[in-house]
Amino acid sequence: MSSSAPAPASSPGNRRDPLRLVDVDFVRFYVGNAKQAAYFYAQSFGFEIEQISDLTTGSRDAATYLLSQGNIRFLLTSGLHAGHPASEEVALYGDGIKDIAFTVDDAVKAYDECLRRGADSAYEPIEISDEHGTVVMAGIKAMGRVIHSFVSRTGDYDLDRVKKGGQFMPKFQKQTDLAINQYNRDNPIGLFYVDHCVANVELGKMNYWVDWYSDILDFNLFKHFDDNDISTEYSALMSKVMDSGRELIKIPINEPAEGKRKSQIQEYLDWHNNTPGIQHLALLTKDELHTVGRLHQRGVDFLRIPDTYYETVWDRVGDVKEDHEIIRDLKILVDRDDKGYLLQIFTKPLQDRPTLFFEIICRRGSESFGKGNFKALFESLEIEQDRRGNL
Ligand code: FE2
User: Fold this and answer.
1) What is the C-alpha separation between 162 and 44, in angstroms, rounded?
2) CA of 310 to the centre of ligand 1 (A)
3) What is the whole-number distance in angstroms between the Cα of residue 176 and the centre of ligand 1?
4) Which stretches of the chain drop beneath a pLDDT of 70?
5) Domains in the chain with CATH codes
6) CA-closest candidate to residue 245, choices 3, 24, 12
């Protein structure tokens, strides 16, 4: 074939096209009570309760609340009868994340291509239309009962219009007069997008899912300075980070490892019906001190770390422009790689089970995930233990 011939349909360039991910369309949670969960995430984390789909809008099977902040869109869904999948999964796992959905140009083509590559179908394409436009969705199965939906949008349901406040899809109704929304507009938290979304899988399954994200969704193994799969005696987990490219999302995949303590990954699996799933979402802010300060005022419960952490952290991470005393007062963690530093903090679990939690992250150049804090956290805990004579 001459070099000027058009590329055949099977060339890598063309093959990738159907899976060009435009954006993270939404993150869907299955929850026991969508109405109450919506107020929790609005009151605690500053999300706008933007649109609702429920009995009052003609949805007979499920109630779904669209919450938004920056370029983050959560769908909180509860079944309205026992047979709805959300009801079944809440019974198995408690509240948690069901779907990380991607906007694509053509959801059917993306779905078909994934099936051709060996993915299992979660649900076949559905088309939801009215006089304003069309949303097409189709889903593939990822780890456990987590799925990835592909969403393509036309007419008024185009994602850019949704981002400007347009209707999310048919049967959604905008909320115009909720006092909490006005309060959140007056008192913004400052979350911008989902930086990463971490999956916990069973022992020995990390590399399977690394290959899956590479083979099915064209994600790449993300290389950074601390990227390795060697567990330390402290961290007791192994992790590899998959990158969607185009700065959309990264999906670190954890599996448990033997360590000094029971792996936090194993604890998750124990309380998640021995099923892999999403462990945390990291939400990005451009001003960690503002965001975390406001979240503290709203009563968000963060992991507490001992003051001893701050006896060594500044030597470890070097120059950090944010106020050191405020960082310490807010119990924010700091880490550095060869590209810069990051600030991060972790909430306690967001529901009764020790499963899903949030991370609030701010990047000052750093592209990593705070691995240096595993060791520092456990070391500072041991300093406390030692002071109590218990080490
Ligand atoms: Fe994280």
Assistant:
1) 24
2) 20
3) 34
4) 1-16, 224-235, 260, 380-381, 384, 391
5) 12-186 (3.10.180.10), 191-388 (3.10.180.10)
6) 24
